[in-house]
Design goal:
Oligomer: single chain
Number of strands: 44
CATH class of the largest domain: Mainly Beta
Shape: globular
Strand content: 25-35%
CATH superfamily of the largest domain: Galactose-binding domain-like
Number of helices: 13
Number of domains: 5
Largest sheet: 8 strands, parallel
Structural class: alpha+beta
Strand order of the largest sheet: 33-32-31-30-29-28-27-34
Distance between the termini: 81 Å
Length: 754
């Protein structure tokens, strides 16, 4: 019978393109999972290593049980890989996030296994342009599967060989099995177990006629976080009474649909989807996660009270999908068709979608397949992009008739663009209140879409803003403070959660994540929009804003624990709780009780000397402290690491413009428009063709398209010119200090409009 042997141990590794013909003893010794970008993919600069990494290992036949066939199983090698056995190439796989296998033909007593992994830039394999680091390496488990010559299929799109479709209405499961080298005398025995591991029913069929259905007298529904009940279906390949091979899968009975007015409906009940998006990497580890890392992520998401996860922007580890099933998460799963359509990438989008669906069909947590993310960053969808989306949408419906399709649109995508209306549902990525605009625009935008297309279910697939350990009593857009992030999410919660028609909302992001091209917030190489820090050690205040709305676990939380030193005589203190009433004490003196149906409680606190704060909500308490200081604590103020200019180098005469002013203020003057146009044209002129870094980037043509986009201009009008200059590193552009100082001198001659 099938046995799976893990081979994560005892590899040799080297960054090279040369395939060794002998075991390279002098190479670096390591164990899997592994990525070669755990450090340089998170330190900023957009210069992390993208190239070939060679892994070598000796396979000894005595280390494996006797079997007719041996298959190498790769669960994640980013982003392309070739397998060699004693110098002979066996296969190539393009796509860094799925499971794939190859038969190890010619396995001898001692065999050299070599895997060439490549995360180089190219025009065929997704992703290539996105706001995250494309970590190279074999970053998930690697196994050898030992099977009989007759066995469940292992090679078709990474399949398990078992395809199970539960039908809640009919109270039955449809079973399709795929068996290789079937003999006439062989049979298949199917069994269904309940959550207590008791057999409910079983059925035996000829192996040459593997497809059947099995009815149950009664069923227990999988009902999200409330009741994630799972059954287990096993399939045994029999020769007489001997079990030649066995596979199993867990399934859940549930029905769901999306109503354009009522949102998501689970098992006939309205079930508003409110949750987060998740990237799979960590500080100092990259994407080479262990099971305990996945479990910790799930624990934090559950603590916050979320009931849905958008697993962006690629196929995640099977172990995490299993956790989603077990914890009752409703999941959006997608492929890394992102940011820019690649002329040579259509085949890769199809192969990655086939793998995503084939390998994840059985997960009750997954309700939709995501076609793409922000694919129109460079402008409206062209014919090739439309064709690719229609192809993927049809493929999803052909392979899986039980789930709907969706996509995540770039905020500037016109709502009438035909590509927006290809899938069954759509969501938009909006950062109004962070990337330009203001927070109040978000809800109204969705109302306009809903009014224009009342039959198209609409959701919010990304929204958020960055926060690090910076603090202020006067939070403002773009200041990277924890206080502004908390304010932003308070406003977005009130706007989005009150709109019943939104089929799902997903915060971007649950955790800070690596993006080596980013130069923002004073800590380069990361996107800091997470509700939890990159190392998972600190839950930002905004985390508790969601917990107050979504979690049934009683709690109270005082915001601003890292903001101790304050200069004002009376300071505002915010408290979050899911309890109906909160009382705040300052040095033991009650400042009163407050009730708030929105779960956000605000207190004005006298700031004299040192003050111990205590919040009380029923039997639950939380403590904090503040301290009066005469001058603002500069350690709380955002300072850009590697900034082009320091604040004290920027002259800003009173009544005149400077690069500290917003783009909108500068562009409101004729000369300001001319100077900005000259500045931007200079950037485009100096940009090499196909320039790229590690962030949300494109080539020179993409940058030109963005500059021509009126919606982008409107979005960025709230950014200061210096902030825009610091951010364009995401497009691989280096702005010279002298250029900015020259622009500032010109702006200093323009009177500010009254």
């Amino acid at each position: 019978m099938r046995q799976i042997v893990n081979i994560n141990q005892d590899w040799r590794f080297c960054k090279t393109e040369e395939i060794p013909i002998r075991f390279p003893q002098d190479w670096e010794q390591l164990n899997l999972p592994h990525t070669w970008n755990a450090v340089d993919g998170q330190d900023g600069g957009g210069d992390y290593f993208r190239g070939h990494g060679i892994y070598a290992r000796i396979l000894r036949k005595d280390d494996f049980p006797a079997a007719d066939k041996y298959f190498l199983e790769m669960n994640g090698a980013n982003s392309s890989a070739e397998v060699y056995l004693d110098g002979q190439k066996l296969t190539r796989h393009d796509g860094g996030y799925s499971t794939w296998r190859v038969e190890l033909t010619g396995l001898k007593e001692e065999t050299l296994l070599v895997i060439d992994v490549d995360n180089s830039s190219n025009e065929q394999t997704y992703p290539q342009f996105a706001d995250f680091t494309f970590y190279g390496g074999i970053y998930r488990d690697t196994n050898v599967i030992c099977v009989n010559s007759s066995h469940f299929d292992l090679e078709t799109n990474g399949t398990t060989g078992l395809w199970v479709t539960p039908d809640a209405e009919k109270k039955e499961v449809e079973i399709n099995a795929f068996v290789e080298n079937v003999m006439p005398s062989q049979r298949l025995r199917y069994r269904i177990f309940d959550a207590d591991s008791s057999v409910i029913t079983e059925k035996t069929v000829p192996a040459k006629m593997p497809n059947t259905s099995m009815a149950l007298e009664s069923i227990h529904l999988w009902h999200g976080r409330k009741d994630p009940y799972l059954y287990t279906v096993t399939a045994e390949l029999l020769e007489g009474e001997q079990v030649l091979d066995q596979v199993q899968t867990k399934v859940g009975f549930r029905s769901f649909r999306v109503d354009p007015e009522r949102g998501f409906i689970l098992n006939g009940e309205e079930y508003p989807l409110r949750g987060v998006s998740r990237h799979q990497d960590r500080w100092g580890i990259g994407n080479a996660l262990l099971k305990e890392h996945h479990r910790e992520d799930m624990d934090l998401i559950c603590e916050m009270g979320a009931n849905t996860i958008r697993l962006a922007h690629y196929q995640h580890d099977q172990y995490f999908y299993d956790l989603c099933d077990e914890r009752g998460m409703v999941v959006w799963a997608e492929i890394p068709y992102i940011s820019r359509h690649l002329a040579g990438g259509e085949h890769n989008t199809v192969s990655q979608m086939k793998e995503l669906i084939t390998q994840n069909y059985h997960h009750p947590s997954i309700v939709c397949w995501g076609l793409s993310n922000e694919i129109t960053m460079g402008g409206n969808a062209d014919e090739a992009t439309l064709k690719n989306h229609k192809l993927l949408n049809d493929l999803c419906h052909e392979m899986d008739k039980t789930r709907f399709t969706t996509l995540a649109c770039f905020t500037a995508s016109p709502i009438a663009d035909p590509y927006v209306h290809i899938p069954d549902t759509v969501s938009y990525n909006h950062y109004l209140g962070w990337y330009g605009g203001d927070t109040g625009m978000n809800g109204h935008w969705f109302d306009r879409f809903h009014a224009a297309y009342p039959q198209m279910p609409i959701g919010c697939s990304e929204y958020g803003c960055e926060a690090l350990n910076w603090h202020t009593s006067n939070p403002a857009q773009g200041d990277y403070t924890e206080e502004y992030q908390a304010y932003y999410h308070e406003e977005l919660i009130k706007q989005l959660f009150s709109r019943k028609y939104l089929w799902a909302t997903h915060v971007w992001n649950m955790f800070d994540f690596g993006c080596d091209g980013r130069n923002e917030g004073g800590e380069n190489g990361q996107n800091h929009k997470g509700l939890v820090t990159f190392d998972r050690s600190y839950k930002k205040d905004a985390f508790y804003a969601y917990k107050a709305w979504l979690s049934d676990e009683p709690f109270v939380h005082i915001c601003g624990k890292r903001y101790v030193d304050r200069v004002e005589e009376v300071t505002r203190v915010t408290v979050y709780s899911n309890q109906p009433q909160v009382e705040l004490f300052a040095n033991g003196v009650s400042l009163g009780k407050k009730a708030c149906p929105e779960h956000f409680f605000y207190f004005d606190v006298p700031n004299e000397g040192a003050t111990e704060l205590k919040a009380v909500a029923g039997e639950y308490t939380d403590s904090s402290r503040i301290c009066r200081v005469e001058t603002f604590n500069e350690s709380y103020r955002f300072k850009e690491q590697g900034a082009i200019l320091n604040w004290f180098e920027i002259t800003a005469p009173e009544g005149y413009l400077s690069i500290n002013d917003t783009l909108g203020e500068v562009m409101s003057t004729l000369r300001g428009k001319l100077y900005i146009a000259h500045f931007l044209l200079g950037l485009v002129k100096d940009l090499p063709k196909n320039a790229s870094g590690g962030g949300k980037q494109g080539n020179g043509d993409t940058l030109v398209s963005l500059l021509k986009n009126k919606d982008i201009w409107q979005m960025t009008s709230g950014f200061t010119v210096i902030r825009i200059a610091n951010m364009v590193g995401l497009a691989g552009i280096k702005v010279k200090k002298e250029t900015l100082l020259g622009l500032n001198r010109r702006l200093n001659m323009i009177k500010r409009k009254s």
